[in-house]
Amino acid sequence: MSDEIVVASVPAGHVYLRHIAAEQETSVRRLRDPDPDDPRRSAEQGWWPPVMLDPAWIERADFDVFHLQFGFDAWSTEQLADVVAAIRRKERPFVYTVHDLRNPHHEDRSAHDAQLDVLVPAADALVTLTHGAADEIRRRWGRTAYVVPHPHVVDFATMERLAAPRADTSSFRVGVHVKSLRASMNPEHLLPTLTDFVATTPGAVLQVNAHRDVLEPSGARYREPLARMLREGAAAGLVDLRVHDFMSDAELFDYLASLDVSVLPYRFGTHSGWLEACRDLGTTVVAPSCGYYADQGPVLTYVNEEQHFDPDSLWRALDSASQHRGLGQVTVAERQAQRAAVASFHADLYRDLLNRPLVEEGVA
After folding, report:
1. Which of 13, 153, 168, 310 could disulfide-pair with 303, CB 3.0 to 4.6 Å?
2. In a domain, 362, yes or no
3. Does residue 51 share a domain with residue 98?
4. How far apart are CA 149 and CA 214, in angstroms?
């Protein structure tokens, strides 16, 4: 066997995948995402739908380890079983990183739970991002998952440029980004508390960024009650409302760096790349009590779980955030060291798997 380990990483182009590899990786080579329109070629941009989840691609591809991360939302349990079977026929190790134990896009959790019931027992090794998630995996499936922290999201050059301490401490900018409204978001419940807080806190500003498809009547995801609340808040001078299309990465990072605090308006979920981007840029995070956001790094927590939201806890978190600017911020040096450690872990895991028996019939 060659010293180089070839990994079919699903997907390969996602920022998380790019940042769990060392910048000068030598022992691991991740295959590029095949082009959905021509699987014989690599995709220059985008990775959806993931061609690597096609059993026919698995059968003919040359790789040592198959590592699933994202991209199987639209796959049925039968299709995922076919993927696992194809990996088994190939006699290659199967690694699954459990990012989501509760899919943020699904109001009903049953479909994702059924997918996990196929993938988690079948994996030769499981990885997740927090100890809380690992504990849940152990309770639900009796499997042990390695805990490996989420790497940086913002590139190092941008971190150096944007992550300086905020110069103006007389103002306090609170941001809520409603994007295209995942099923997990309930910003309407949070807005009254947010506007009351900024109205009574000297120097506080509430900035809400939203996509046109949510706030404009012609939008595919138009949400009239939310649009009305935000327009009224803006007219009353309580909301600095920004309506736009999708931001580029550069625009997103500039936006996050302009905030003192970012409020995550989630009522269910598991982990957050958004949270990590805020930590990269020195923006304090106010995170819900659902999921394992507080396990990822220092955040200020408020109670928001499925159908239960506690407005007093949000007020307290915001008040604390005004006194803890830059909470949880990580330096470039810390992220570089973390990235090297994460890359080393994966290389060692792959090497170990290639030298031990595979999972048989879904039993570790």
Report:
1. 310
2. no
3. yes
4. 33
Cα angle value 155/157/159 (rounded, 5°) = 70
**CATH (domain of 243):** 3.40.50.2000
- CB-based contacts of 147, cutoff 8 Å, min separation 6: 127, 128, 129, 130, 131, 133, 134
Q: Give the burial class of 280: count Cβ atoms within 10 A of its Cβ; 0-12 exposed, 13-18 middle, 19 or more buried.
A: buried
Taking residue 148's Cβ as centre, other Cβ atoms within 10 Å add up to 18
pLDDT above 60 (res 1): no
Report helix, strand or coil for 53. helix
Tokens at residue 49, please? 């739908």
Full residue range of the structural domain in which residue 146 is found: 5-151+337-353
> Is residue 348 classed as helix, strand or coil in its secondary structure?
helix
Q: Which helix (H) or strand (E) holds 192?
A: helix 187-200
Q: Are residues 160 and 274 in the same domain?
A: yes
Residue 142 and residue 168 in one domain:
no
Asked whether the whole model's pTM tops 0.85, one would answer yes
In a domain, 267, yes or no: yes
> How many structural domains does the chain have?
2
DSSP letters along 62-128, please? --SEEEE-S--TT--HHHHHHHHHHHHHHT--EEEEE--SS-TT-SS-HHHHHHHHHHHHH-SEEEE
pLDDT in tens, 45-92: 566 789 999 999 999 999 999 999 999 999 999 999 999 999 999 999
Q: How far apart are CA 289 and CA 305, in angstroms?
A: 7
Same domain, 18 and 109: yes
Q: Could you read off the pLDDT of 97-141 as tens digits, one per residue?
A: 999 999 999 999 999 999 999 999 999 999 999 999 999 999 999
Contact present, 171 and 206 (Cβ < 8 Å): no
Q: How many C-beta atoms surround the C-beta of residue 108 within 10 A? A: 9
Query: What are the pLDDT digits (tens) for 322-337?
Result: 999 999 999 999 999 9
| Residue 207 and residue 273 in one domain | yes
231 inside domain? yes
